[in-house]
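Q: Could you write out the predicted structure for this multi-component system? I'm mainly interested in how the pieces pack against one another.
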Amino acid sequence: MIRLIAHRLLLSVPLLFVVTVLSFALEQIVPGDAAQDIAGPRATPAELEQIRIQLGLTRPFWSQYAHWLGNALHGNLGTSLFTGQPVTADLDSRLPVTLSLMAGVLIVCTVVGLALGTVSARHEGALGKAIDALSMAGLGLPAYWLSLVLIAIFAVGLRILPATGYTYFTSSPRLWALDLVLPVIALSLGAVTVMAKQTRDSMRTVLGQPFIRGLRAAGVPERSVIWKHALRNASIPLVTVLGLVAVATLSASVFVEAAFVLPGLGSLAVSAAQEHDLPVVEGIALYFTTATIIINLLVDITYGWLNPRIRVT
Amino acid sequence: MARQVTSRDADDTLQISIVRRILRKPVAGICLVYLVGVIGACCAAPVLAPDNPLAQNLSAVEQGPSWTHLLGTDELGRDVLSRLLYGGRPTLLGAAEAVVVAIVLGVVLGISSGYLGGWFDRIIGRALVDVGLSVPMIIILLTVLIVFDESMTAGMIAFGVLASMGVLRVVRSATLAAREELYVSAARVSGLSGARIVIRHIFPAVTGPIIVQATILGSTALVVQGGLSYLGLGAPPPAPTWGGMIEEAQQLIIGDSWLLVPAGLALGLSVVALGLLGDAIRDASQERWSVRGQPVVTRHLTRAHGPAVADPVPAPAPADGLLVVRNLTISMAAPDGDLPIVRDLSFQIAAGEVLGVIGESGCGKTLTVLSLLGLLPKGIYVSAGDAFLAGQPLSLAPPARGHLSNGIGMIFQEPVPSLDPVYTVGSQLSEVVRIKLRVSRSEARRQAVDLLRLVHLDEPEQVASSYPYQLSGGMAQRVSIARALAGDPILLMADEPTTALDVSVQAEILDLLSSLTDERGMGMLLVTHDWGVLADMCERALVLYAGELVETGTVASLWAHPRHPYTARLIKANPYFATPGAALTTISGVVPEPGNRPAGCAFADRCELASDDCRSHSIPLIASHTEGGFHRCLHSERIAPISK
């Protein structure tokens, strides 16, 4: 188990390296540079050169990268070209919004997905077919479109939920929760159906195994056979699915936060992209990559916790 | 060469049959028609579009659908249908660019890394893929769009490059599998060049997965292209795109949400159609491997138990016998009427007696045991007969677990797989103890350890805190026996309890079982196919063939002088009679399937003694000349005693 985690952490080093070098390299080939942006269109070549030297833009690539990396390790990801604020301060203030969304999606996905999948594993027919159909729709319908449809129905039409905006948990937990309902639904629909489908397949496999018959023959009641023994066994591969859902939620949050005007990392990525604010986009790339690494690590740990065979070795 | 030609032909016909199979699925057909229609309509937009997609008409803004504007007009009075048709072009083109890049890159790298192996595979096939699949794709795309000045083509190519990692992984594993297949190794040995092997043998083998991947990618690429356009990146307005139209609709959402529908549905349905098509293709190529002509019974049988146990008011229980089974018939529900699998089986077990049940696989031994526990699989049910345990009727229709198994302990064939792999032995045992005895957690734990001690496990505490995978087969079987003993059953049933074990362990387990039955006066039903086990353990035995009792009697008398040819042949097939160096005696032919059983004696087709009488009517049980023995053979006097 410890070896597994160590292995994961070791793998994350080249990953972070590639992501940072890649985004850093991309910055180098942008037509026009930061100096131009700072100095404005009327700057003389001499002024530009001066700013370039100040920014370290005249040094070789690897030296600049090392400088950037050194700063990054000290929690300094540069300043936003647009607002002039430190990138980390900007990102840290928006992180809780995206994390709230992700937590909501994971909870909905686990509870509803597991329940639907488990029930449909035992009762073929209408429910199973509905899940099949829904899973196609859930996967297929783009989350940004679904967001708008939800807004049109629940906020504009029925007026029972807020359309856009975000209230911080600290100012009003109730409004915070209400603001999250529609975005979480928009992000979860696909994930829940995937989860239900995977749960059903996994449950069917487990229910066909000899130990299920063994438990029943020993008089273990059906409730415990299904919800304790079979589900625990079936949930082992599902942890991986949940990890994938978490990572996919990060990506989808970019669109959904834009649709619901939520002040999270995703909507920041969009506005930064529209304003060509590379330091901010790079910072988000770093945050997302780190989040992916952490998610994978949690998946491994949970996997080991659920599966004794891995825990011991 | 001739061999290769045939294998290629076979491949070709295989591909054709898959295409046919896909087209036969109505869903796949509808999706294909839809996709071809959408692509065709968008290509033909200049001809089909009723209007210029950019022509504004401020006197007719935000109109609903009408005959002049089939899908209405937008906020600038532009015709929505025309914008939809023109808007599909950049959307579909972007998705196509991404798919082509991803497939070409993924296939080339995937086949190379699967075929070449070595360092190339380690760097490209493993490391690159691991990294590529973990980078935040959407953020990279945003960066690329900034760098390349919002060129959608650059964005979709970048998406293709990132997405090729998934294709690479799938193609690589398909290539690895194909490479290991016999014909490729043979081709390599016969000196074909690497390129030829890849083109002629590996490429056809990976085509299926590639097509499936292409459809999945296509649908993802559509969502991504639409999303980037929705965010206002890529093609700048006023040129229409589906994503851009969704964004325009968002601006008007307070007043009128109709504009969400055309672009959203066009995009959503295309995505869903591609996904469903991919599913259909995958199903069709998987069906290739499934066995044909097997009746799929379980499908239309959800919880069909048919009539539960026949007569609802059972005849009074026979006084003698711990377990009494009368006229037990087990049937399988089938499309054209129910098929009996076990027919009219009656037997008794006295307290302290061990009754053996012997027969080939498929004779109904296991089903008989499961029926007594109420654990028959779906679609199989008890259609007649009844059973009594210590005078109490057993409920044979599922779900009958729990109340009946208090009196019956069950031991299965596979020791380790019969235990739940993710809970400790102690936790599983205490759960059963708690259910049966309704005691506290700590008391249950204590009794669980006692049970482990009872089955002669050294260090029972340590076994209790182990997981099943940490136990040997013999230890796991002792745990199963301990579990069966929880709640002090009066009857043990064991279905080939030693078959999966080493010979030395077999003897220990059998010793344990016989000492337990002796000490506790339990009855036991022992299913086996091993005459040695039967001789060691049982006084009497039942011989089952094709779901029917063909002979019963004491083991000694069966062994000395069988009265049914099947018993005789089973005994002779025992390795005990084998001559060193000669092939083992086997019984030619197979047990007839439930639907295929002959009218008369089920064994007639495999029997040398069979006459016309045997085939004309079913044979009743006939008393043998030994004490308490019965058989179902018209020619029993012609069967010679076994000479040792």
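A: Regarding packing and overall arrangement: Chain B touches chain A through 74 residues (CB under 8 Å).
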